[in-house]
Amino acid sequence: MLRFLLILFLSAAALVARGPVYVVLWFDTEDYIEPAADDAALRLATDLDKLGVRATFKVVGEKARVLESRGRTDVIRALAHHDIGYHSNYHSIQPTPALYLRGMGWLDGAAEFERRERPGVDDIRRIFGVTPSCYGQPGSSWGPQTYRALLRLGIPVYLDEGEQVGLGEQTFWLGGMLHVFHMGRNLIRAELNDESHLSQTFEKFDRAAEALESGNGGVISIYYHPTEFVTTAFWDLNFAKGANPERSDWKKPPRRTPEDSERCYRILNRYVEHAKSRPGVRFVTARELPLIYESALGRGGDRALIARHMAEHQNFLVTDQSAFSAAEMLEILLGIEPAVVEGPLARGQTAFRGSEISRPAFERAKADAAGFIRANRRLPAEVWIGSEKLSLTDFAATLAADNGVSGAIALRKGNLEFEKYVATDAQRTFNWPIHPEGFSAPELLELARLQAWTLKPARLK
Ligand SMILES: [Zn+2]
How far is ligand 1, taken at its centre, from the CA of residue 64, in Å? Predict the structure, then answer.
């Protein structure tokens, strides 16, 4: 008996020590052309209710309005029982976000996204009675300017898949938003067209869960579209390759047979049951994500450690207690209260003739940079030293290496490391049948590199 109790105690202790595994199950609820997709959303919501699992339905503004005009209060009510996110106002009607954001900067792009998208968010609020918990782009039509707009719209989580930016196949902070994005091995979908593949999916899920459990835990992301369960091709092929037909010319997607649909529902239910049966696995919604993660600002922060780190390279820093973005560390080095700020608007250039900066001039430059950050909640692209200037990265490296007492400070070249987390292939990452053929958006990746001053891993509480 004693031995049994001991084993019980030890295995309980082992369970406690394992990292938690959270599953985010989300549905891009977007098909406003095929009415059967309304029934699919209802069926998925009620099936999951029966399994005791809450999912996140990222709803397109036009889809919400269509549900309302079709009198589908049953669908609206069933989805509202789960979590409601946002998936753009019109999804695939041209121009999609990356198209119009590509030619814009940070501020004008954010303003334009907000102008186009606020009406959709307002409709979601009116129809579902909640502010959407998260946003994710249509297809791969991603753009970093959306972050600034989304935070203004009260949406703090970015939930989607894409390859433009990613960090260790886990949740991260960028531009003040909590991201579940580019999840790699932790994105695990069960193939809906072949039930015989399900055991392989279970194995894949178990392997990912084990890997997370043996570390600090993390998130597994699973996504579907309700329309996938009732159609065999996507509804928005109407808009393929940049096409923008009139509403009267929209064609409905081909339907699955009822038996086919039943198999799809069964596969998802079996997958959810499998995930749920694993001890320590918990399903969470996008709305719960900010509650299980530490807040956007790092705690504490050893100035000497941060100075050593930032003098060598500008990249985020993970310590035993916390995680800091390069932007946060710059704020700490400047002696200002860390706050969530935006990255610079442009890639600054150093234009400085000497190799040293006098102490008084450098102290004035520090005060100037601190003033800019406080006033704009944004990092400056360049810091002035009289009539000359340092790029932000050279300024950060120089500041970090300064001992604070010498009469002259040696100019130090920056070493931006966080940029490696942003993709460089601007065509592949924006590949989407709805974008015009050959579409590529290197400008958006460059904006993301500038915003990567704010990049860091998210830490579970
Ligand atoms: Zn979508």
Answer: 14
Q: What is the pLDDT of residues 420-459, one digit of tens each?
A: 999 999 999 999 999 999 999 999 999 999 999 999 999 9
Q: Name the pairing type of β-strands 157-159 and 172-174.
A: unpaired
Q: Rounded CA gap, 118 and 90, in Å?
A: 12
Q: How far is the CA of 138 from the centre of ligand 1 (A)?
A: 4
d(CA 204, ligand 1 centre) in Å: 25
Question: For residue 158, which amino acid is it?
Answer: Y
What does the DSSP assignment read for 65-108?
A: HHHHHTT-HHHHHHHHTSEEEE--SSTTSSSPHHHHHTT--HHH
**Residue 66, Cβ neighbours under 10 Å: how many?**
17
How many A from CA of 332 to the centre of ligand 1? 40
Euclidean distance between CA atoms 260 and 237, whole angstroms: 21
Pairing of strands 83-86, 317-318: unpaired
pTM over 0.85? The answer is yes
Cα(105) to centroid(ligand 1), Å = 24
State the distance from the centre of ligand 1 to the C-alpha of 144, rounded, in angstroms.
17
Distance 135 CA to ligand 1 centre (A): 11
Task: Provide CB contacts within 8 A for 6, sequence distance 6+.
Answer: none
Q: Determine the distance separating the centroid of ligand 1 and the alpha carbon of 88, expressed in angstroms.
A: 9
286 Cα–ligand 1 center, Å: 16
Cβ-based burial of 19 (10 A; exposed 0-12, middle 13-18, buried ≥19): middle
Q: Kindly give the distance from the C-alpha atom of residue 162 to the centroid of ligand 1, in angstroms, as a whole number.
A: 12
Q: How remote is the CA of residue 30 from the centroid of ligand 1, in Å?
A: 6
pLDDT in tens, 145-183: 999 999 999 999 999 999 999 999 999 999 999 999 999
Confidence bin at 16 (pLDDT 50/70/90): low
